[in-house]
Amino acid sequence: MIKSDLKNDLNTIKGYATMIKVKNLRKEYDGIVAVNNISFEVKKGEIFALLGPNGAGKTTTIKAILGLINYDGEIHIDEKDAKNKDVKKFIGYLPETVSFYDNLTALQTLQFFAELKGADKHKCMKLLGEFGLKDSANRKVGEFSKGMKQRLALAQCLLGNPKLLILDEPTSGLDALGAYEIRNKIKEMNEKGVTILLCSHILSEVQELADRVAIMNKGEIIAMDTVKNLGKMLDIQPKLKIEVEKITDSLIGKIKEIVKEVKVDGNLIEVSCSPDLKLQIINEIEKETKIIDFKTIEPTLEEIFIKMVRE
Amino acid sequence: MNGIFVIAKKEFMDNWRNKWIIATSAIFLILTLVTSYFSTGKWSDIGSTIAGMETFVILLIPIISLMLGYATIAGEAERGSLSLILSYPINRKEVIIGKFFGLCLVVATTIFLGFGIAGIVIAIKAGIDAAEYLSFLIASLLLSMSYISISILFSSLLKKRSTALGTAIFIWFLFSMIWGMILFGILVIKYGMDIIMQESWIAPDWYYIAAMINPNQSFEMFVAANVKPLQQLQRIYLPSYCGSFSPLVLILWIIIPLILAIFFFENRDL
């Protein structure tokens, strides 16, 4: 009994237990390999992102997890075979292209999906309210804007309090405000303990949201780790931006003795360096002139991604 | 089981909301009353009424059923809504069966509403044998269910809505025109026009069996075997096995395509 309680407690701790386990997943379409023998795990409570260019195999991977395509390999969700329809009771899925029934109202749409999941139909109105669609509950979905449809799609994901959300390009086609709202909702859900598998090609979005990232290219996972660790692995140095009072040739010369590349833009000096050289550079600058401002910028996912895909 | 019910209910409610059921029922009602009254200027008896109705039932019910079912899988798969449905705790078999029952309920409602109300009017005006009229309604329903099953089969096989539409039109032509023409052509080539036009001439068994494979002709045989005034009116020879086997053929047309649809859909990538 104690052991069982302990196991349950440990399973709820973020990053301890596995929510999705993909082993040797392979999928071909008419002889063309879409996903080539990939394996990865998504831990409970984390936001895990699949990142890659178009045709990398991200959507195919998601479709395999949801049982929408036939595949070779093994997929387990919460230790159960993904092909078992019961596992879908705790999954919420947001497809890349949202397609609802135009002749149904927003409320009827949510009620239909709630019935499919065996979720409480009476909570649909509350859910619409959470996504700012309460006033449009009785409007037909066919009359909705792209942003409203996307919010409705996210609302349907949350029916039946899912433990796992699979989001395929969640902010695709949305304006800046709409995308911001959706990202906040994703963070909010994750804070409540929901595991999130995110598939996106928007690098800044993945960098903002994801705990770990798997970079896919040509059907394979070419790297998988946290953004910070991926940067370290590729030896992409953090950037140091220093605004100084006055730039002189001797100052630049002294910095170049420490690091090879120095960019100068007005009174701004930009260098890429390892953290241990940071203090040395600052000391050299302070000997010559006054520092007005400085900041360290960690490697961006864009830099990592471009380097990975090129290599 | 819940999944089948939810999908069936949605299919039915979609067609209820878009007034399809009401519109088709009204067409059936008007056509039946027109056939019964205006063809002779007075209310016709059951035989004449059903003889007249048979013509438009054979043309209309297959096309209506095919139009209802052709996009049910192909269209939804193309749009992406099927992927969303299948991300819920429902399996593919339940989707197919749910859609089948939902669409069958749609046509059953139109048949029993349209023909049923017309039957009551004709019964009041001219008298009607309820059992014979009911057997006609059941035959119409079986015909419709077989075309729904066929349409779900090719909808499960085809990826594009437009291809599915083309297939629906081809199937309608095949069973409404081409099938009968081919069989008649074979008879003419084999026996000659003069012989087969003789009133006393009886076609060989293979002709009736081949004709019975066509759901439209199976429907006609089923109706002819069960509505006695129709037999007297049409004076067409029909071997006794046609009456016994025709409902079975219609039932096979319902079951086999549905089983194949489940098989193909379960192995299809979305």
Please provide a brief summary of the model:
With 311 residues, chain A is α/β, with parallel strands linked by helices. Chain A is built from 11 helices and 14 strands. Chain A has 2 domains: 2-225, Rossmann fold (3-Layer(aba) Sandwich), CATH 3.40.50.300; 235-299, YebC, transcriptional regulation domain (Alpha-Beta Plaits), CATH 3.30.70.
Task: Give structural notes.
The complex is a heterodimer of chains A (311) and B (270). With 311 residues, chain A is an alpha/beta fold. Chain A has 2 domains: 2-225, P-loop containing nucleotide triphosphate hydrolases (Rossmann fold, 3-Layer(aba) Sandwich), CATH 3.40.50; 235-299, YebC, transcriptional regulation domain (Alpha-Beta Plaits, 2-Layer Sandwich). Helices cover 37% and strands 28% of the residues of chain A. Chain A is built from 11 helices and 14 strands. In chain A, the strands form 3 sheets. In chain A, strands 6-7-8-3-9-10 form a 6-stranded mixed beta sheet, sandwiched between helices. In chain A, strand 7 (164-168), helix 6 and strand 8 form a beta-alpha-beta unit. The longest helix of chain A has 16 residues, at 176-191. Chain B is mainly alpha-helical. Chain B has one domain (2-266). Helix content of chain B is 83%, strand content 0%. Chain B has helices at 2-17, 20-37, 46-69, 74-79, 81-86, 92-126, 130-157, 161-191, 193-196, 205-213, 215-226, 228-234, 240-266. The longest helix of chain B has 35 residues, at 92-126. Chain B is globular, with a radius of gyration of 20 Å. Classes of the chains: A alpha/beta (311), B mainly alpha (270). The A-B interface holds A 29, 63, 66-70, 85-86, 88-89, 91, 93, 95, 97-101, 103-104, 112-113, 115-118, 156, 166 and B 2-3, 6, 9-10, 14, 17-18, 79-81, 83-91, 267, 269-270.
